Fold each of these.
Amino acid sequence: MTRTKEWLYGWLLLLPAMALLVLFTHYPAVANLWHSFYSTPRGSRQAVFVGVDHYRQLADDPIFWQALSNNLWYALGTIPLSIALALMMAAWVNGRIAGRSVLRLAYFTPTILPMIAVANIWLFFYTPEYGLLEQFLRLFGVPTHNWLGSQSTALPAMMVVAVWKEAGFFMIFYLAALQSMSPHLAEAAAIEGASRWYFFRRVTFPLLMPTTLFVLVNAVINAFRLVDHVVVMTRGGPDNATALLLYYIYEIGFRFWDSAYAAALTMVLLVLLGAAALAQFLFLERRTHYQ
């Protein structure tokens, strides 16, 4: 096979994936950017070019800034905790312990539950006076509290749900990475007298960096694309205390039918996710060690 035929054969193999990527990722993003510079068509009134008016409106929108702030706090509270918990669970169930298959299943079960089902389960937990959490805290004399109806606790309560659901999903990747490591590394470290903590810090964790990078990218995306739980549990309340960026886009686009302004908000979200992914690859790639 000549070099030209090899080149053509390679591009033909990539063509289906590239077509799907352009059709469902790049084209919608470009179309969304174009739409953000036009007004929303309503009835017989056609869309007109408005330039950056939507972005000026966005800069003066207090709900947008609150939703963005809520989302940043949400990401800061869920991402490190989910990853750390996933790593600890994976390290535990990777050891030779009794019933580890049952433990693996128990940790992974929240991941396979539908988002709406998870939200309704936790609504029962958080129900004032009657919820499971309220009944448990009542045993210790803690007064009743409306966890989802209070501005101070609504967002942290949502964070708990996210960590509970995502940690098991991330655990699977860490468990697969741990099982792919050669057992000779631990044997050599034991012969040299290295402690388990030293071996984890100097050998295991550096070898897990490719997995950590993958998990971190997914965790950031998940933190900024949450809308199901918000719709079912709080609808952004109380007083926009749990309004996240994607939920605000959903409200603008499908409740108030202002698709052009929603497109501008979407572009902000895409820029934030792109910048976060770029920063992760630039800074973590240097610390990533491949076997």
Amino acid sequence: MTIFRILSGILFICFAAPAYAEPVKLKLATSIPEGTVWHRQLMQRVDRVKRASGGDIVIDVFPGSQLGGMSDTLKNTVRGRIDMWSGTIPAFGSVNGEYSLLSLPYLFESGEEFGCVAPQLLPTMQDLTDGKFTLLSLSPLGTQSLAMKREIRLPADVDSIKIRVAPVVPIINFFASIGAVEVPLDPAETVVAVSSGMVSGVDTSSVYYMAAGINKIAPVFVDTRHVYNILAVVVSNRAWQALSDEQKVLLEEEFDVREFETELAEINDVETALLQQHVDAGGILVSQTADERAIWVQAGRASWNNTKDGLRGDIDRFMDAILEAKAECN
């Protein structure tokens, strides 16, 4: 009888014990290099999700193109093969042509305008996904400038020079319009391209320029700041639909754009410090005069109409949203 009671007690405890659900594990692919300011800021959001969910949502981040190039991993996220993706707006041009407008050269007058305008665009951009994925958040990525093997100052100076450009229509058209031989490449292919002599210049950010070691191959950094770039985080439909409503809200809250301007200021500080390191190490930094910048701005904006005509999607709607946000910020 005693043995029967003991066994009954053990069975009761086993069946009465609460069943704890396994934590949701999401795989996030990104091309941003580990150790950069972008990676640190992304990991801060990932850590916030883990803490806020009490460990119920765990995001495993694979930086540095470990799961493939930026465009390929985005496509695999849209197909549901990868849960989450973090990458630049240029890559979005392959799935949402409207987003490419954010890569129009000299779209933003200043970093202050960019920091005010970009967060306001998230709702419109979310509507434009057409249900292909969930656009979770936007964060700043810094500015695009030119890294060269020899010094240049004006658009005419790049005539006939092979330059790696972001694989997005506005940037391709811009460099073609000023006479460069544009070579569209994923960031992961950039270092090999410049080290092999395939290109003599690179459309890049100062952070990636230093982090990837491009400064050792192309020692001239021309601070054109022709694009203020954005980093986006998306979730595949397959992964999103598997989440509870509470988990979806938690992800939205912890990945929101509330820190956009703070993150932008941090990136600006990092850019300034890195370029000073470049100069201290014997590199060349070409800072533009007001007149030189005016020439670059004029050349960049001259390519806008041709670019807009060649993009697919609801271009007018998104351009109107950009212009309205710019007007509010100014």
Amino acid sequence: MKEKILRETFKLLLKKGFDGTSITDIQNAIGMSRTLVYHYFKNKDALLLAACKTYFFLRYASISQDACSITCLQHIEHTVSAIGRISMELSDDGKSSPPSIENYNILFYQCIRRYPEVRKYMLDYFRFFTQVIENAIERGEIKRGLPAETIGKYFLYIFDGAINYTVQVSDCEHLCGIIRRELLTFYSTIKA
């Protein structure tokens, strides 16, 4: 039940934004009473934050939280797969049409401005990925002497850039293929 509320809320946020999404809209989208919505979330703001946290961070974080146990390449593949899963989950037909990437990005930046907690989630994710890279350097997966933090930033720049330049892509597979190709191209230049 809670997952359905989060999913439908996030889909509404993608279409209407923060200011355009009301509790009545959410209630109508999920077919539940306002009381039931408030059973799971103390107020509208808590619900919106939980939906954003879920689809901007938690869906990507389902990989083992032990940065020592995964390779950089595994992390890249996991991230690309997560994009595919999120796109399918949020698509209107549940199959192939991704949600508007442009709306996803706009909502993400609005979310950063609206919720200070989101900056913390971003920093936590970046620290985790930097640790994955540091471990990859120590294991010899990535060339020695390269700064892990800078590599992590470049991966995020490439990830964001690939997403921002694919706003016209109409299917999940194509979107994931573009992102995977761009990330793997950079990975091939830094691998040992």
Amino acid sequence: MFNRQTHFGFDWGEFITGVALIIAAIVMFRNPGATMLALTFIFAILAIVRGIATLDGFPKLHELTGKLAWLSAVAGVLDLLLGVVFLFNLVSAMVTLAYLLAAWFLIDAIANLFNAGHLRRAGAGWFILNLVLDLFAVLVGVLLLMQPVVAAVGLVTLLAIAFVIFGLNAIVMAFARQNI
């Protein structure tokens, strides 16, 4: 009863998932513009849903928190407006997303640079290495802001690489389960 062994066998679901992910990655590599357009569409829909959800929760939030709830209402309206604008102007939204990606990278790099001081306790070498890497990241962030198309293609490339990795892993798992 307790020693019941089940043979897993070849996992066709994992195999098909892996192949589909790799095909999606190839399509993404071959059509980065279309991929960015699809990501922009998804972002627009998510912004609309987020705006609606935030505005829907505003009365309860206002009841619980009082005065500062208006910040959430403003954020909800901005999410909703941004989503609608992006939805009806996907090309401009793609450029905006590329700038947002670059700005995000730059802000993170600057924040890391300002917080590097604590590494002095770990040793001068670690501190200097961190400073050099953070300064390099700031430079890359500035370059991405100057070249939003590079930022957009970079985003698509990273996503496609992730799909390849997940796809290969799923295929390996499908074959490995044959021996379980």
